[in-house]
UniProtKB/TrEMBL annotation:
This is Fe-S oxidoreductase. It comes from the Bacteria.
Length: 88
């Protein structure tokens, strides 16, 4: 059984993560830094599901590991539009 953990945005990642997960975390952090989001208080949460890491950021961004392909999938939360006519 593996236990999860939490760490601050930009902090040291936990040991034992696949390299591709580390790259994905840093890519998300770089994007947040580039757009200037105020995310200084945000934290990452690592959980292990069926032996595979799943990492979630406080904003709802989720990174999942695919062991068969040694890849990571980043899913960002949907952003709702304030204008109801955007679909036209």
């Amino acid at each position: 059984m593996q236990l999860g953990t939490r760490w601050p945005l930009g902090g040291d990642l936990p040991d034992g993560l696949p390299h591709v997960m580390e790259l994905a975390v840093r890519a998300v952090e770089d994007e947040l830094d580039a757009v200037g989001d105020d995310a200084q208080q945000w934290r990452w949460t690592l959980t292990w599901l069926e032996g595979k890491p799943v990492i979630e950021l406080d904003d709802g961004t989720v990174i999942r590991y695919n062991a068969g392909e040694d890849s990571a999938t980043i899913t960002q939360p949907a952003v709702e539009s304030a204008d109801e006519d955007d679909w036209i």
